Amino acid sequence: MPGENLTRDEARERAALLTVDGYEVSLDLRSALGEAGGDGPRTFRSVTTVRFRCAEPGASSFADLIAPSVTAVSLNGRDLDPGQVFDGTRILLEDLAADNELVVDARCAYSRTGEGMHRFVDPEDGEVYLYTQYEPADARRVFANFEQPDLKAPYRFEVRAPEGWTVWSNGAGELTDGVWRFAETKPISTYITCVVAGPYHYVTDTYTRELPDGTRLQIPLGAMCRKGLAPHFDADDVFLVTKQGLDFFHEHFDYPYPFGKYDQAFVPEYNLGAMENPGLVTFREEFIFRGRVTRASYEGRANVILHEMAHMWFGDLVTMEWWDDLWLKESFADFMGAFSLVGATRFTDGWITFANRRKAWAYRADQLPSTHPITADIRDLQDAKLNFDGITYAKGASVLKQLVAYVGQDAFLEGARRYFKRNAYGNTRLGDLLSVLEETSGRDMSAWSRAWLQTAGVNSLTPQVLLDAEGRIDELAVVQEAAAASDQPTPSAEHPELRPHRVAVGLYRRTDAGTLERYARAEADVDGARTVVAELAGAEAPELVLVNDDDLTYCKIRFDETSLATLREHLGALTDPLARALCWSALWNLTRDALLPARDFVDLVVRFAGRESDIGVLQMLHAWAESALVHYAAPAGREQAAVLLAQAAERELYDAEPGSEHQLAWARFFARTAAGPAGLELLTGLLDGTASVEGLVVDQELRWAFLEPLTAHGYADEKTLAAELDRDDTASGKRHQVRCLAARPSAAVKAQCWAQVVESDALSNALVEATISGFAQASQRELLAPYAEKYFAAIERVWTERSIQIGMDVVRGLFPALQDSQATLDATDAWLTAHEDAAPALRRLVLEARDDLARALRGQACDATAG
Question: Quick check: 521 and 504 in contact, CB under 8 A?
Fold first, then answer.
């Protein structure tokens, strides 16, 4: 609908006109149980009272509401005709007074897409669970409001719910006369209000801290999940990390947690990792582990807990004015998540994960045609939805790490403290933060901001080493190249910025013991096209030069010929885990840039991944190797590369320490790479108990991991999957079964999946995701070929008719990437040419998919040439 996609200009005009004093929201959720009446969506009653001021009495504006129907609208005591003032997305407000009261009585729809008030029915026991998810603008699906981040206000919620349910919201609540009433919130934005309701399993604890003024801060803690997940819920570890994080942020921010209680809800069918609703953070329930997982999974959960906690200050207490400055919350939360993870928890190697995993996300996003400055140009809400990306999160966090090196940690944290105190419960722009950092650091932040926050693209840093007659370094320089264009691996005129980098350059040689160790290191300010690192002159000739050692800056690392040759033969001998992770990341970027053949990267994984000690890095290597095989390997060499990977995975599975997390990681990777009869028969044997690997426990989650490849290759059928669901008749089991069913190698199955996802909206968001995941199997390229044409014929209609979340899932997930040919690239270009007027967000998704395909074809050409 035309009014659904709020523009920045509309938001600025409304913010200049209105000031919101408060909301009272009454929700009746008793309709969540029982049968839905009629042919329309299941709905609930929502009554909202908004008190607000208008700077220009007599002016007109609008309130936001997406609802099937509105029963009544009253403005300043005047009853308005809903049919005249409500168009399905907006309520027209004319002839406003200086002080206004708006009352809206509406029927709002429960969601099955994870947007608004999501309703989930647990197949295990039939229980119903509700939760809300709003970012960036879905609170208007639950109550009438002014849906933009800079119109903050306090909220009072009251909720009627089915008997026996518990309800939570941002403030503390109590049940009185059948109604849950919640304490008024501090002034917050619409998108971080929240309601969770249902028969959730709930665990409590308390956090206590002595404040500098001698008072005692006491924060009630809670954590909840579905009853069916309660046996797996390790709430003690969640609370441990929560308390460690609260200690860390109180110590460094000098601003007590401002939102009273701190509940954390792990909810089903969640689209995101988590959401920072003050006082009631929501997480995807997959962070409750039903089976054995590696330390990397616990580290990932801890990082997300701390990321959301950082938002209580960066984002909730102080909020960006509009989505252009989304980085003011997400970049900081991403950086603070890693910073506090290392500084406060048992995961002291968190910067290795950050360098290897988070930055990989950023590097990919920053080389897409949709790359944008960290401070982005967000024209409307669809732009905002797509900008929750690797640039806003991981690149922004990487740049903040560089900023800490630039201004110093003490100045950075003092700047944060001043920023909170000056802007508490308000809204800010870029300049508000830069001004306090200039105060605390004494540096001019304008040039740094222009280079790092207001330009796009990732630079490449390459060492140049000149030796003297005695074999020592005569000169070592770092060469900086501008960002490459999205469609060619050469510097781009579009992103010409050469940035200032604070880097460490490490020199490595092999020892008598055969290990590869650093023997010299120097920090330097790289600025411009070529920078000489004078401190390293006279050092012994290195076998490996690692630019950006210790990962101080954000760049793509390149190698000189000697260094690359050393890594080809001795990568496994590199003892420092961070240096090793950086080298792996650089080699992967070379592969993606068609500068290293995919077969060479696969060979490095085959020879050296078994020596990787960091479990998070190992699991990332598995993902990269699989991607290299599926997308970047020349078609003629794929089968051979697949055999080598599968053999290596099986070998390492048997060689890993019995019962270790490395053995578990190799077991999962073996399942994903097994394609030949011997490997598939081993998986079958591990499932039915006729085969075993010492120490490997095949729990329920691992069983599903083995079943997907068996189903995709025709070794397991629908009857087998039905029997497995009987073993695991849960919501998680159902999602696994749906994914496996979609993976079956049958034209009829693919047609059914396509119809369920593209032609129908009957599936929930989680089952749409599971179906898409199973549909596209790399071993079924020919079976999927007919869907390339169908894809381009359907996506504009899907984007128009479905919610933006489902639209994103379909456009990204069903793009015919496995039809990796020039013909598919041409078909993509033809669609883009014929649809220049399509929604910009839809075009962005197609352009990104096109870029990935073009990059894959370049990689395949590089790999073929190497053969």
Answer: yes
* Cα(633)–Cα(611) distance, integer angstroms: 24
Look up residue 660 and give its amino acid. Answer: S
Q: Which residues contact 167 (CB under 8 A, 6 or more apart)?
A: 29, 159, 161, 173, 175, 180, 195, 196, 197
Q: Are strands 18-28 and 155-160 parallel, antiparallel or unpaired?
A: parallel
Residue matched to tokens 């940690």: 409
| Structure-token pair, residue 237 | 């570890």
Please report where in the chains the tokens 């938001």 appear, as a residue.
11
CA nearest 246: which of 191, 296, 308? Answer: 308
Catalytic residue, candidates 158, 285, 308, 848? 308
Report cis status (omega within 30 of 0) of the bond before 268: no
pLDDT greater than 90 at residue 697:
yes
Which helix H or strand E contains 642, and what residues bound it?
helix 638-655
Q: Is 276 helix (H, G, I), strand (E, B) or coil?
A: coil
Nearest of 396, 410, 289, 256 to residue 338 by alpha carbon: 396
Question: Distance of CA 129 to CAs 45, 67, 121, 161, 427, Å?
Answer: 17, 21, 6, 11, 33
Tokens of residue 726, six digits: 């009987």
- What phi, psi does 100 have (nearest 5°)? -130, 150
Query: What DSSP character marks residue 609?
Result: G
pLDDT in tens, 828-855: 999 999 999 999 999 999 999 999 999 9
Model-level pTM?
Answer: 0.95
Q: Which residue do the tokens 């959960």 mark?
A: 301
Active site residue 4: no
Q: Which residues pair with 530 in a beta bridge?
A: 479
Largest CA distance in the chain: 92
